Amino acid sequence: KPAAKTAAKTTRSRREPPRLSSPTKILFPDIRATKQDVFDYCSAVMDHLLPEIIGRPLSIIRCPSGTAKACFFQKHHTAGLELVSSVRLKEESGGSGEYLVVEDEASLLELVQFNSLEFHPWGSHAAKPDIADRVVFDLDPGPDVPFAEVKQAARDIRKLLTQMELQSFLRVTGGKGLHVVVPLNPGCDWDLTRRFAHGFADTLANTEPDRFVATATKSRRNRRIFIDYLRNGRGATAVASYSLRARDRAPVAMPITWESLGKLKRADAFTIRDVPATLKRRRKDPWAGIDRIKQNLARWAET
Ligand code: ATP
Ligand code: MN
Ligand code: MN
């Protein structure tokens, strides 16, 4: 049994989930998926989704009137949340703020009651916010890049990481691109993590400037893939595996095996409608054992 699953079971709270108001409200108008559908989806994938966000400072995307209307990104705890915990953390901009932390199933479902569609955790835990335990290479293709090239980029990055004796895992974002995720255990401070990710992206862009860019400037992308290393800083987030995306067809950010990358057609191939059944059918978690891998960036610290 995957470790993550066991963790979710043992931390599962007995607290009652909140009552859902407006269950028939349409949140994904193109597929007529309701707030109840979102609640049912999150309940169905709870054993997979909860371990990805539990105990981490969390940002959410809330769409109170559905994905066709305004949605907003929320980092901080707000009035009305009774089950969701918080942690007071230093802000990058100075001062401090109360960040959202989900500790159990009931609090995750309370966020659904508040019309949260997307979950975006930090790469660190609330108890140790300054220690990164994941590096995320966020592959953002320019508008003219075929998906096959994004797939090849992910494979190439994996190969380079393997040469550095770092195992990596793959997630389709539910949007346009892929995330290559490197677990760190024990974790590393954010300064080292950011320098590593930035250096890795710069090296790629310098070696193959026709394929990759490592600067956020939009105009330089077009036919290239932006290696978004900026996910790797204190306070930065990346979408959680199994989170819905507030986009057409309600796609899901889905971990996949490297072996199944070949037949993947697009980054939003998995949706609210098929993921629960896919998880039941699946024999193995593609990220099984990710939190037991002992590797980190210490040996690259000097470079
Ligand atoms: P795609 O494959 O379409 O790029 P993605 O999830 O990687 O999907 P990005 O736009 O590349 O989307 O964003 C990467 C991450 O940056 C997001 O998953 C999210 O956690 C974070 N992010 C996105 N928008 C904001 C925002 N407005 N404020 C802060 N962080 C954000
Ligand atoms: Mn991206
Ligand atoms: Mn990005």
Automatic annotation (TrEMBL):
- This protein is called what? DNA ligase (ATP)
Domain of life of the source? Bacteria
